[in-house]
Amino acid sequence: MTPQKISYKGFLWSAAVLLLLTAGAKLYSSTGSARIVTATDPLLHLRYRTLLVGLGALEAAIAAYLLFGRHSVAKLWLVFWLSSNFLMYRCANAYLHLKTCPCLGTIASALPLKKGEVDFLLLTTVLCLFFGSGFTLVSMLSERRAAKQIAAIGEKFGKEAPEKMELHDGEGVVTDQVPQSPRGQAI
């Protein structure tokens, strides 16, 4: 197992665990009767209970796909998409000077941490998910691009380009079809 594959699998596994934990906290908090759950989010204009249930279900579904899904690039895009949405929400809250973000629901108040420390940990987690998935996506896509360029160089010098080439996606070898021209040569 290559170091890249180990770090890639470790990243997705840790992302899945974090998403499952936050999804559980959100779903648990949505069943409570705390006043914050019945309040309306000033940015999205939805009740926090609705947001907690919806985001908890979405995070749980994405975590399940990270653990059991097969398409490695889709896993990374999902983590990148979700974390970028969380960052945009936080940036919009900061721009509008809104201080309320019940990201963990009411469970955050049960933790032995101050509210600022919990917010810092959540922001750090979101940034790790964002940059981790973004870096891994860029690495995988640049590796695919390099493999296609190598095939094009082989064609340029008169060598028959292979019909298939191996591209590594961090989880193993993925075989992609090389697009063929009508004359049977790689495009």
Would you kindly provide a written description of the structure presented here, covering whatever features stand out?
By secondary structure, the protein is mainly alpha-helical. It folds into two domains: 3-142; 143-177, no CATH class. Helix content is 64%, strand content 5%. The protein is built from five helices and two strands, in the order αααααββ. The protein has helices at 3-30, 35-38, 48-68, 72-95, 115-156, and strands spanning 164-168, 173-177. The protein has a two-stranded antiparallel ribbon. A hairpin with a 4-residue loop joins β1 and β2. α1 (3-30) runs antiparallel to α3. The radius of gyration is 22 Å and the shape is elongated. The mean pLDDT is 80.
**What series of H and E elements makes up the topology?**
HHHHHEE
Question: What's the Cα radius of gyration?
Answer: 22 Å
User: How large a portion of the residues is in β-strands, by DSSP E?
Assistant: 5-15%
Question: Sheet with the most strands?
Answer: 2 strands, antiparallel
User: What is the count of DSSP helices, taking H or I runs of 4+ residues?
Assistant: 5
Identify the strand order in the major beta sheet. Answer: 1-2
Overall strand count: 2
Which stretches of 5+ consecutive residues score pLDDT under 50?
Answer: none
Helix content: 55-70%
Average of pLDDT:
80
Q: What is the global morphology? A: elongated
N→C terminal distance: 33 Å
Domain count: 2
Structural class: mainly alpha
